Each structure stands twice: as structure tokens, then as C-alpha cells.
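In response to the reviewer comment on reproducibility (Comment 2.3), we provide here a single inverse folding case reported in full, input and output, so that an independent group could reproduce the run without further information from us. The C-alpha cells appear first.
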């Protein structure tokens, strides 16, 4: 069953076409990754899926329900979204920031259960030691993990993450990707935009590519990790090697 279905999506900024003829399905309880060059339309597509940008043409469905029909608490139950950038000028504690993930359900009066969900999310990401810290004093990587914990506290069925490994060191990149893989097996449907094909290929289940405002897929899904196909997506020669059974790809020096 498809958790997210996009039909005939077209989008333009004024006269500039950003997405065209997008037909796409993200499967339930899978960790899917969207890859492609900067400016190819990945973030725009996510903003449409999250309901931040209004649809100009086409339809988006979550579990068969139109995105336009999902409002307020119902949308919060269905969808959590991490944008590419986020900032806070208020010196809230980490716990208070994470608790805002329950705002659609509890308003200004969080319950004991809400607090438990927040603490569980911090523990899941191994950042419970930050619970009393001032959010504005954290590093970029710590803030990134806090924002993901906020989404887990919301407990949506679908999680959209725009560059989730941004600002993270190598340890936390691997840690987070493993967690996202595990969460997809625990009932979440996770879709992420990423720039590193190797991290995606190591941890994710499904891969989708954007080029020239359209979804490009190889005829054989197993070829998605091949150097030749990636060269056609990134307009850059690639080479590949194997470490055990794991394929590693990298740009070929020009």
C-alpha cells in the first residue's frame, strides 16, 4: 500500500517551472530518500507535500485522503515535517522546544503523557542529557537532533525530513540514519531529502531521483546505485567500488 501518492504535480514560481509531471508513490513503513542536484526541485516538492506551498496542479494523498482535506490535529496526526533550516530567537529549554510537537493536541496545557513522549523522543536520539539546556546555545547538529525529537514527540504516521544529516558529524550521521531505518520498521513512513548517495544507499529502502524538474528512475531499480545512472543524474562522472557486498560510489576526478 502507498502511504503517499502524488499525481500530476506541476509547480512554478512566476514563469519559472520548478516541477512538472510528477507522479510518485512512497510506500508505507519504508525509509525512502529523494536525491538530485541543488535546485532540482526537491525542497519545493517537500513543501508541497507538507502543505506549506499550495498546490497549483495535481493531487497529493496520504493513505488515500487528500492533503487538502487534512486540517489541524488530523494533519498533525498524519504528517511531521523537518524543514531545511530552522531557528529560534527565544531561549526556551530543550524540553519546551520538543514539547511544541504536542501543540496541535494539547495546546498550552501539555499532559503528563505529552511530557513522557517528549522524554522518550530525546532518549531515542540519545540526547536526553540536553533536556534542560537553553536551545539557543546548542550547536547546529544538536539543534537538528532536537527538531527531529520534536517530530517524534508529535508521533505522526509520516515523517518528511529535508536534509536530516545537515550539521551532523560522522558519528551522528550514521547514528541518525540507523535510527530512521529502525523507525521505518516500527510503523513510521519516512521520506528524506539527502545529498550523500552512499549514506542513502547504506540505510534507506527506496531511492527516487529528480532531474530537470521531473522524477527520473532507472528501468531496473537495482541500477539506481550504479555509477553510470548517477552520472546521468548529477552530470558528473562517477566511479564505484565494493567493500564486502556494499557498493560505494564517488565522483571521478576530472
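Designed residues, in position order:
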Amino acid at each position: 500500500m502507498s502511504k503517499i501518492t502524488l499525481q500530476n504535480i506541476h509547480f512554478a514560481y512566476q514563469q519559472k517551472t520548478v516541477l512538472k509531471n510528477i507522479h510518485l508513490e512512497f510506500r508505507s513503513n519504508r525509509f525512502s530518500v529523494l536525491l538530485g542536484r541543488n535546485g532540482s526541485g526537491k525542497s519545493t516538492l517537500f513543501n508541497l507535500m507538507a502543505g506549506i506551498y499550495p498546490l497549483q496542479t495535481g493531487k497529493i494523498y496520504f493513505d488515500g485522503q487528500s492533503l487538502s482535506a487534512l486540517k489541524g490535529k488530523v494533519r498533525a496526526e498524519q504528517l511531521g515535517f523537518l524543514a531545511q533550516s530552522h531557528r529560534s530567537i527565544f531561549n526556551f529549554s530543550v524540553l519546551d522546544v520538543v514539547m511544541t510537537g504536542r501543540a496541535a493536541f494539547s495546546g498550552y496545557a501539555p499532559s503528563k503523557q505529552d511530557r513522557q513522549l517528549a522524554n522518550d523522543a530525546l532518549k531515542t536520539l540519545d540526547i536526553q542529557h540536553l533536556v534542560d539546556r537553553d536551545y539557543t546555545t546548542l550547536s547546529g547538529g544538536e539543534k537538528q537532533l532536537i527538531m527531529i525529537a520534536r517530530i517524534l514527540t508529535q508521533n505522526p504516521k509520516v515523517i518528511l525530513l529535508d536534509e536530516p544529516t545537515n550539521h551532523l558529524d560522522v558519528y551522528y550521521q550514521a547514528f541518525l540514519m540507523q535510527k530512521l531505518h529502525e523507525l521505518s520498521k516500527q510503523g513510521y513512513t519516512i521520506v528524506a531529502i539527502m545529498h550523500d548517495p552512499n549514506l542513502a544507499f547504506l540505510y534507506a529502502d527506496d531511492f527516487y531521483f529528480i532531474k530537470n524538474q521531473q522524477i527520473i528512475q532507472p528501468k531496473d531499480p537495482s541500477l539506481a546505485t550504479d555509477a553510470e545512472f548517477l552520472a546521468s543524474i548529477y552530470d558528473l562522472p562517477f566511479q564505484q567500488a565494493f567493500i564486502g557486498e556494499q557498493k560505494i560510489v564517488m565522483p571521478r576526478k576530472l
